[in-house]
C-alpha cells in the first residue's frame, strides 16, 4: 500500500532521492503511522500490539531505503507508477539523472553511473563478476579418485595426455597396457625415456599406481586361442583378459571412479571397405567397439556411484574419410551408438556416466598406422575454424572435465574436440574452390 502515497520525483546525480522525494517520504511515513494507530485501537481484534509494531518497523525500513544512496528501489518504483516509466533490468542499466517529471526518460541499457561509457572489456569483467567462476576456470579436484586408463602404449597419444591431466587433478591412475607393449613401456619408463613427458606443473614426475597387462579383445581366459597363448609376445604375462584385469584391479586398489577406454585396432585399416574381409571387419569391431561393452560389463560392478567413463572416437563415424578403411569407420559409429545405450543402461544399473570424445587428427604412433596422418593434420589446419594443430593435452583437459563432478549432468554424448573441423561442410583448400576464387579475381 506504500506506492500510491509516493510522489513523482527525479533522482540526484548520486542516485539517491531528491528533495521532492524526501518530502514524499515524510508523507509516506505519516500515512504509515496513521494506519498503525488505527490498528492499535483495534489490537484486541487484530492480534494485539504485534501488527502496529511490524508496520512501524516496515516504515523505518522504507525511510532508510529511500535515504540510502544508490538504492532508490521504492523511489524508482514510485516514479514508475506515477510516470508510467519503463524499467530495464539489464546489467549495469541506469536511468539518466537529468530526468524530470513529464520528460521522456532516457534509458541506457549498459551505461554505468560513472560518466565514462562502458567498454567491451569492462562489460566482460562485469559479466564474469556475475558468476562464482573465475576467468581462469574452475579447478578440477579429483583427489582420492581411482582411475583405470586402458590403451596407453607410449607418451605420445591421447591416453597418456588423459592420464597426465587426471594425475594433475589429484587422481590415482592405473594403466591397462596391451600385453606385447607392456615390457617395452616398463623399460622405457625405467630408463627415463618418458621423464620429459612425465613432468607435472609442480616439477615432479607423474607416477602410476599400477600397471596391468591387458588385451581387451578377450573377455575371459577360455576365449583366448591357443596360438595367442603360445605366442612369445604374450609369454611371461598372465591374467590379462578383461574379466581377469577387473578382478585384479578390485583386489589391488578396490573400487574405481574413472574408466578410460582408448582402444582401437583395425588390421585392415588401409583397405577400402569394398576390399575388407569379414574377419578384418569383425576384428575392427571387436577391438574398437565391443571392447568398451566388455569393459563396462566387468568394471561397472566395481565402479563407485557417480563415476564416469569415456572413450575416444573419430568423425569418420559420420562422414566419409577415404583411406580410413577396414571397417574402422563402422567401428567408430558402433562405439558412438554404444555410448548412448551404455549411458542409459550403466546409468540405471551402476549410476555412472558414459561419454565419448571425438578427437581431431593427431600424429601419434597409433595414428600413423593409417599411412596418411600428416595429410589429414594439414587438411584440418587449412579448413578448421581454428587454424592450428590439435594437441593431445587439449583432449586430455576435456577428458578431465568429463571425468570430474563438474560434468555431473553430461552423459551419452559425443563431445567434439577438433578445432571445429566437424562443423565444416566444404574444404576451403579444395582445388575446385581455389580455381573458382582465381577466376573471380581474374
What does this protein structure show overall?
The chain is an alpha/beta fold. It has 15 helices and 9 strands. Strands 5-4-3-6-7-8-9 form a 7-stranded parallel beta sheet, with helices on both faces. A two-stranded antiparallel ribbon has the order 1-2. Helix 6 (158-168) links the parallel strand 3 and strand 4. Helix 1 (19-41) packs antiparallel against helix 3, helix 6 packs across helix 14 and helix 10 packs parallel to helix 11 (278-299).
Structural class: alpha/beta
**Unreliable stretches:** 1-16, 69-135
What is the gyration radius calculated from CA atoms?
A: 33 Å
Taking all residues together, what is the mean pLDDT?
79
Largest sheet entry: 7 strands, parallel
Shape: globular
Number of helices: 15
What is the total tally of β strands? 9
Strand numbers in spatial order across the main sheet: 5-4-3-6-7-8-9
The proportion of residues forming helix, as a percent range, comes to 40-55%
Order of helices and strands: HHHHEEHEHEHHEHHEHEHEHHEH
Q: Beta-strand percentage? A: 5-15%
C-alpha end-to-end distance: 76 Å
